[in-house]
């Protein structure tokens, strides 16, 4: 009988956990589009960029500014050891925050990618992550 109760409790926690995890997540930038040249698996690059998303979001200063932000394009040349050699961003449109571009470049320069056989070129479109389900407008 105890095994059934523990199993049921574990089942309920496993089902409910994503609801609480999503609702309490910090604002973040996430990858909307990704293109890699020279990488064996773009999934590792996608994961590395999305892990840095909350820190990229801090560059905007407020959640309101982040949600109103247009997607930005970033171009990275990643060395064989996984460190960015060059980072360039475009489409940064926030006249009230003059340091936004510099902050985004600094944060993208801190992303650590997997080691590769050679240089990997990454082109990524980053945009605000969708709001939690409870904050989304209903249709």
Describe the structure.
This protein has 139 residues and is of the alpha+beta class. The chain has a four-stranded antiparallel β-sheet with strand order 1-4-2-3. A hairpin with a 5-residue loop joins strand 2 and strand 3. It is globular, with a radius of gyration of 19 Å.
Residue windows where pLDDT falls under 50 for at least 5 positions: 1-14, 16-23
- The overall strand count is 4
Q: DSSP strand (E) fraction?
A: 15-25%
Side by side, the strands of the main sheet go 1-4-2-3
The Cα radius of gyration reads 19 Å
Please identify the oligomeric state: single chain
Please give the share of residues in helix.
25-40%
- Termini gap: 45 Å
Mean pLDDT: 80
Number of helices: 5
- From N to C, what is the helix and strand string? HEHHHEEHE
Biggest sheet architecture: 4 strands, antiparallel
Sheet/helix structural class: alpha+beta
Judging from the principal axes of the Cα atoms, what is the shape?
Answer: globular
